[in-house]
Design brief:
By secondary structure, this protein is of the alpha/beta class. It contains ten helices and 18 strands. The longest helix is centred in the middle third of the chain and has 12 residues, at about 175-185. It binds zinc ion (2 copies). GO terms for molecular function: alcohol dehydrogenase (NAD+) activity; S-(hydroxymethyl)glutathione dehydrogenase [NAD(P)+] activity; zinc ion binding. It catalyses: a primary alcohol + NAD(+) = an aldehyde + NADH + H(+); a secondary alcohol + NAD(+) = a ketone + NADH + H(+). This is alcohol dehydrogenase.
């Protein structure tokens, strides 16, 4: 096999034909990589909550589209301008990139590169697609799509990983877990001895809990409507659990204050995507200094923020991929994975074959489900 291939590959992929439609396994064509792109043979993928939203048109209502944004694969061929990767490299896709020279990359304040931006047009950087079906062009989920046997991606949006990392772990690190871990580590920069509240104990929330524990937080309050998340949260370092079973006579922020001598927490993380919880998350933090980090995505386009609690010196901010810079920071997290300092095995609860992907969305509704691995 030559290093660069000009051949079109026909393979299986999961296609969503329209807003809210069930997913279909289809035979699609994947073009050869152009200039700075690589074609990747996927080893496995995983399901992120955002994938459900993608079927409803997140981040843009563009269809038909090939689904999936988490995964890991092996570089099958490379474009002519590629210099940082070679055939056989194991890589994970990341929807954010790091050029290391732009204003944002040289700043400690953000991971959102200006040269290689997070894109919402669901196409390659040159505005075209590398995937098609029976001659019709297909959109990607972001600038790539992972629920496919092969995909093309710009080399700046992949990170090479050590082959000893388990494919499932690598896949989980490509979005959900890293987003949570990074939010505590890079975005909030949680300090030793601080207090934290985490709204929603899915993969992102559990990543926050672990990130906060490793940063030395002493009070880590998990909040979830599913009582089974209590046990899971403790594995990651949660110290207290608030179960939203609907019977509580106190509001969530009152419950958080009761656990923090009436003061509230230093940091709250909204990972559930449930819009009304954003105000609870803000009001759960300390007056004057509290910070709320928004990560959950939901169906809402906007939400109402209570004026007074925010006016009282609190901060609300959002972050993408937990503020992790893919070249400077992600290798540190990958090393923690290799050293078994983080809990990734505990995330994996279910597995499906690519063709059974609709089953994965059903599994996500089960109370014991955290992460579904997609075998390709
Ligand atoms: Zn995701
Ligand atoms: Zn940059």
């Amino acid at each position: 096999m030559s290093n660069s291939s000009s051949e079109v590959i026909t393979c299986k992929a999961i296609v969503c034909w329209g807003k809210g439609e069930p997913l279909k396994i289809e035979e699609i064509q994947v073009e050869a990589p152009k200039s700075s792109e690589v074609r990747v043979k996927m080893l496995c993928a995983s399901v992120c909550h955002t994938d459900i939203l993608s079927t409803r048109g997140f981040p843009s209502p563009l269809f038909p589209r090939v689904m999936g944004h988490e995964g890991v694969g092996v570089v099958e061929s490379i474009g002519e301008q590629v210099n940082g990767l070679k055939q056989g490299d194991i890589v994970i896709p990341t929807y954010v990139a790091e050029c290391q020279t732009c204003e944002n990359c040289t700043s400690e304040k953000t991971n959102l590169c200006l040269t290689y931006p997070l894109t919402f047009n669901c196409l390659m950087l040159d505005g075209t697609s590398r995937m098609s079906i029976r001659g019709q062009s297909l959109y990607h989920t972001f600038s790539f799509a992972t629920w496919s046997e092969y995909m093309v991606i710009n080399e700046n949006y992949v990170v090479k990983i050590h082959p000893s990392i388990a494919p499932s772990h690598a896949s989980f690190l490509s979005c959900g877990y890293s987003t949570g871990f990074g939010a505590a580590w890079k975005d909030a920069k949680v300090e030793e001895g601080s207090s934290v509240a985490v709204f929603g104990l899915g993969t992102v929330g559990l990543g926050v809990v672990e990130g906060a524990r490793i940063r030395g937080a002493t009070k880590i309050i998990g909040i979830d409507k599913n009582p089974r998340k209590k046990e899971k949260g403790h594995v990651y370092g949660m110290t207290d659990f608030i179960n939203l079973d609907g019977s509580d006579k106190y509001s969530i922020c009152e419950s958080v204050r009761a656990l923090t001598d009436g003061k509230g927490v230093d940091y709250s993380f909204e990972c559930s995507g449930v819009a009304p919880l954003v105000n609870e998350a803000i009001e759960s933090t300390k007056i004057g200094t509290g910070k709320t980090i928004l990560m959950g995505t939901g169906d809402h386009q906007s939400l109402q923020i209570n004026f007074l609690p925010l006016l009282c010196g609190r901060t609300l901010k959002g972050c993408v991929y937990g503020g992790i810079k893919t070249k400077s920071d992600l290798p540190i997290l990958l090393e923690k994975c290799r050293n078994k300092e983080i809990h990734l095995d505990e995330l994996l609860t279910h597995e499906v074959q690519l063709e059974d992907i609709n089953k994965a969305f059903e599994l996500l509704k089960q109370p014991d489900c955290v992460k579904v691995l997609v075998k390709i």
